[in-house]
């Protein structure tokens, strides 16, 4: 594991405790130093692991991901939003011999979107993410904007536009927009929106798509992580599911 926060910590402890058949925790690279987990250097991790899971954020993926793949280790990416940077994606894809895998994270329906786009290009794809207003404050916001967001009594649409731009503006909240764009294979066709709602108890993602294959609408409503409300509580379990499928593939939908 790289990172042992609200996502990586849950995954690492589940692996440590033997809850994933065919997989075991070899170590954790974590600057914060989780005291109940075996901490190792990146070199040690690469010498003892078949699969490395990145759960430490976009910067960590950019800095360490190429090294993992170049060492011949497979890499499972949680911070999918970083792949809005075409240069980073190309670097990772060419860094092998390790294989690159992406976690589905907080959303579903990506397999059907990928199939529909493979049949024929989709004409329209949107993803609208709604989260509790206070959890969407960003470093680039002015003090006035941040204060207004923390005290608003009504839903506010903070941004709507190309998925690549929205992903860059909300790196901890719009990984899902990047996942949708990568699934359909076209960043330009995907429009993303982020809505702040002070009454939102659940995080919602509404995905719609239209094309020759048909029309689709998926709505996902997740509980936020108690530790890190910008992420959904289900995300580490999606990661564990991916690890289980890689460790002991049996009946797996791909």
TrEMBL record:
<dbReference type="Pfam" id="PF03447">
    <property type="entry name" value="NAD_binding_3"/>
</dbReference>
<feature type="domain" description="Aspartate dehydrogenase">
    <location>
        <begin position="153"/>
        <end position="239"/>
    </location>
</feature>
<dbReference type="InterPro" id="IPR036291">
    <property type="entry name" value="NAD(P)-bd_dom_sf"/>
</dbReference>
<dbReference type="InterPro" id="IPR011182">
    <property type="entry name" value="L-Asp_DH"/>
</dbReference>
<comment type="similarity">
    <text>Belongs to the L-aspartate dehydrogenase family.</text>
</comment>
<dbReference type="InterPro" id="IPR005106">
    <property type="entry name" value="Asp/hSer_DH_NAD-bd"/>
</dbReference>
<dbReference type="Pfam" id="PF01958">
    <property type="entry name" value="Asp_DH_C"/>
</dbReference>
<dbReference type="InterPro" id="IPR002811">
    <property type="entry name" value="Asp_DH"/>
</dbReference>
<feature type="domain" description="Aspartate/homoserine dehydrogenase NAD-binding">
    <location>
        <begin position="3"/>
        <end position="95"/>
    </location>
</feature>
<protein>
    <submittedName>
        <fullName>L-aspartate dehydrogenase 2</fullName>
    </submittedName>
</protein>
